[in-house]
């Protein structure tokens, strides 16, 4: 067990001059989380737009389900994905368990409902504002979806960033399906948990500093996008 002061000093040194292991862990974390965010946006944004403009029987139940899925327990998602990808599962033949791909799948399942629900609220408000204009142009449903997604691109970028923020901080699901294997599936959150349990605080603290810096950077970017959007609206 390292002394806190010594560990913090070593952690700062690792952040300033990252070792190969640290850089590898951070790079894998970013690759997995960015991939999951991209896939979640490709699924969640059109789904959110469709729910924003469509009116159908059972829509209320669909919205309740979508909002409930935002609170999916990560370990439950990890367990479900594990059961599907294990050798005894229906997708076991793919050999994806304990790979970065399995981690991307788990993170995608976790953040897609968040992206869809947040984008649905944004696009539904915008659809109500544009409703008369859309009717005058006789736009099809697909054209309305495309128009909404384009006009709300700044707000939807903040949704994507929120999804990434959620993904990069995930530990339970990726631990189950990734296995925290060194040089293969070890990401920042799982490495922090492992190193802390071993009493090796320097690497854990260095990764924690980087993770916090990422979270602050994402939040600063979200705030910047909001300010930019407000200025554009003021000048419009």
From TrEMBL:
Query: In its keyword annotation, does this UniProt entry include Nuclease?
Result: no
Where in this chain does the record put each ABC transmembrane type-1 domain? 26-222
What superkingdom heads the lineage? Answer: Bacteria
What is the membrane topology here?
A: Multi-pass membrane protein
Subcellular localization is given as:
Cell membrane
PROSITE patterns registered for this protein in UniProt: ABC_TM1 (PS50928)
Q: Which SUPFAM superfamilies match?
A: MetI-like
Which Gene3D superfamilies does the UniProt record give? MetI-like
Which keywords does this Swiss-Prot/TrEMBL entry list? Membrane, Transmembrane, Transmembrane helix, Transport
Where in the sequence is the signal peptide annotated? none
**Biological processes per GO annotation:** transmembrane transport
One GO CC annotation, please? plasma membrane
Transmembrane domains' residue ranges = 33-54, 61-85, 97-118, 201-222
Principal cellular location given in the protein's record: membrane
For this protein, the record's InterPro entries field holds:
ABC_perm_TupB-like (IPR049783), MetI-like (IPR000515), MetI-like_sf (IPR035906)
What family classification does the UniProt entry report for this protein?
Belongs to the binding-protein-dependent transport system permease family.
Q: Which PANTHER family match?
A: PERMEASE COMPONENT OF TUNGSTATE ABC TRANSPORTER (PTHR43632)
Q: What is this protein called?
A: ABC transporter permease
